[in-house]
Amino acid sequence: MKHQSPSSGIKKTSGISSWNEINRNLNQLSDEEIINLYYQLRDECSGTGKISHFPNIKYLYATPFEREKDRREQQQWQKKQKVISEVIDWYRKAKNKSCVWWLENHVIAKHSASSCMNCGACTALCPAAEFYDFSPREIMTIIQEKNEDSIIGLLKSETIWYCHQCGSCKTKCPRQNSPFGMISSLRQLSQIKGYHIESVRGRQQYFGRHLWGGNLWNRACTLYFRNAIPDTHQDFGPRFETYFNRQDEFMKQVGAHPDMEGPFSGRKVHPETLKELRKLWIAGGAVFFWSLIEEAARRQAKEMNLSIDEYHNKVKTEG
Ligand code: SF4
Ligand code: SF4
Asked: CA-to-CA distance for 166 and 126, rounded, in angstroms?
């Protein structure tokens, strides 16, 4: 995504004259300045007649500016919470407990571990097992042995990130067990403990936290219309490339726009709707996990002598 189309509002609201200049000057802006500037730009409306759209949404998407705004805004939202939800309280408690404690107390992990009889049917049909050195049955065995060091090794490895969460294992398990539920639980534990940054795929959670997390936080949908680009989705074929390159024009023909208000994903979501959703993501623990991922990424970026944006670009492309 190129950020080369200056908005008329940038200079008016900040004295800064281009998108690149904003991205270069983030550290000099206070929390309020950065948050206010973001929404002033996002809310600039363009278009005539039936379709009003918000052209800056696509320029704000996936920028260092949006990421920095999200970090600071989410910190503010978290501080404002007077009551910590039961689930977040539980995650905080888990951070200081052993991994075996988690497996004996996290409801999904507990049921999954006790239901498995190690038959291997899940591995036999697992699509990830065809491509990687990966076996859901072996994961279940490590869990059932309850050896803390082996579990930590698993949480630091690439293994738990190979699963595509397709759910095939659950449908074939004679015990109706859910190895992918167990793997989701292990991913959570890995992030709570900060072990995920030890693997390439684990630290890519930082990119995901800002891609899917940024879409959720700002556009109320994990996928934004402009996410799937033809270069990385050649399987969608040549027609998709034509559509992608002309999607604004095509959508206008049916009375829509990717960056409009209304019932389309990628839309400019009504502020009250977004507010309600954000409260849910905070109470349910999503924002808590994003802040854990952020904290671990900052720690590792410092060790690697990288800025947080250099780190973001590294994890996005490595592996
Ligand atoms: S198919 Fe079910 S019982 Fe068999 S190893 Fe996998 S999870 Fe365990
Ligand atoms: S959900 Fe994961 S472990 Fe289960 S079959 Fe799919 S890729 Fe394999």
From this structure: 9
Q: List the residue whose alpha carbon is closest to atom 2 of ligand 2.
A: 163
CB atoms within 10 A of CB 192: 21
Round to whole Å and give the CA distance between 154 and 16: 48
Q: Which of 118, 138, 141, 186 to mutate to test the pocket of ligand 1 (most atoms within 8 A of CB)?
A: 118
Q: Is 173 strand, coil or helix?
A: coil
Indicate the class that CATH gives domain 87-201: mainly alpha
* pTM for this predicted structure: 0.89
Structure confidence by residue, pLDDT tens digits, 85-109: 999 999 999 999 999 999 999 999 9
Which two tokens mark 113? 């571990």
Q: Residue for token digits 């978290």?
A: 78
For tokens 């990966």, name the residue: 134
What residue type is assigned to position 89 of the chain? D
CA dist 182 and 139 (Å) reads 9
Instruction: Give the model confidence (pLDDT) of 157-171 as tens digits.
Output: 999 999 999 999 999
Torsion, Cα 274 228 236 170, to 10 degrees, reads -60
Report which bound ligand comes closest to the CA of 174.
1
Phi-psi region of 63 (alpha: psi -120 to 50; beta: other; left: phi over 0): beta
pLDDT tens-place string over residues 171-182: 999 999 999 999
Residue spans per domain, the chain? 1-80, 87-201
Residue nearest to atom 8 of ligand 2 (CA): 126
Identify which has the larger pLDDT, 258 or 64: 64
**For ligand 1, is residue 179 a contact (CB within 6 Å)?**
yes
Residue tagged 């200079």 (tokens): 11
